[in-house]
Amino acid sequence: MKLRATWMNHEGTKALMTALSEAGHQAYFVGGCVRNGLIDAPVEDIDIATDARPEAVIALSEAAGLKPIPTGIDHGTITVVADGKPLEVTTFRKDLETDGRRATVGFSTRIEDDAARRDFTMNSLYAAQDGTVLDPTGEGLGDLHARRVRFIGAPEDRIREDYLRILRFFRFHAWYAVPENGLDADSLAACASLSGGLETLSRERIGAEIKKLLSAPNPSRAVAAMEQSGVLAQVLPGTTVRALMVLIAEESRIGAAPDPIRRLAALGGPAPDDLLRLSRVEAKTRALLTSEMAATTGPGELGYRHGAQSARDILLLRAAALEQLVDPSALAAAEAGAAAEFPVTAADLMPDLSGPALGEKLAELEARWIASDFTLDKAALLA
What we know:
By secondary structure, this protein is α+β, with helices and mostly antiparallel strands. The chain has helices spanning 11-22, 32-38, 54-63, 111-116, 140-145, 155-161, 164-176, 185-193, 203-214, 220-229, 231-235, 242-254, 260-267, 273-276, 280-293, 299-306, 308-321, 328-339, 355-371, 378-382; strands at 27-30, 46-50, 67-72, 77-82, 85-91, 93-98, 103-107, 126-127, 133-134.
């Protein structure tokens, strides 16, 4: 089998691969770029694995007119900038010692060692410069084409090397598996039994994985499996998948794009801002959605005060919580509210009113205007 992708033919990429191979080194594209390239999914990052040591990668890339940056040289990784595109070049590695968060690695000259330390079989695929695909584990191609997510070797061993792989298992299932396959039973059991190890991870790493998971087109099966296995309670105590599953169905029905913060709000539970290290903007958005989800503010006023997108998200969440369909008329009212402009200004009430009385009168008129579905004009309000 051969990989054929346009990104393989970028001049800078070809120059780097040629420089490594002509110096007598093995050099292969690896991981996500090969996996996604084989299933015609978008490729964002290009990773290259080689038996060349980091110092040799630096020297060869400089000689080829490229710019090497020692971003992770202690772990064997050099970022080579070619035609403005970053290429992550990592020397073949094997794990010497792991503690569930980070690994002490040694360099290797064997592609089999490098493949064995990866997480899932579909991520252990390599491609030569001419596109020839190598499958050192013997299981990667079959699992990729069957859209089956499985750990390499014993799931418990892979998880103990890095407990983040528990969350990655559910994320990869959401993004790459097909529903009829279900979740691999051995992998799911290992995730359940070792979920306590997630406590050793940083909140930033957990938050990044959860947001990637919730950004999948339909992560409901994966998140439901997280709940059933106890993993969801480990990372987001007090949450439940029930409203999320309804929300995702409604998103699909009305054509709303996936949004991880909206979906996070649907899970409920205590504010996860610190648990996931949400940004200020993300935390503010989640707090707004959660508070208005439980409020009775009308759809028109939601659109007027928070904008069309936030109003739509709130209406989606309310419907999901009640296990109902979103009312199209409510969505239309929210759109109308977002486009409405209050016709009265403070200047219209001055100099007769000032100070607190002016503010109170403006608020009163605005409430009347909203209650009229934004139909009252300035003359009617001032009269």
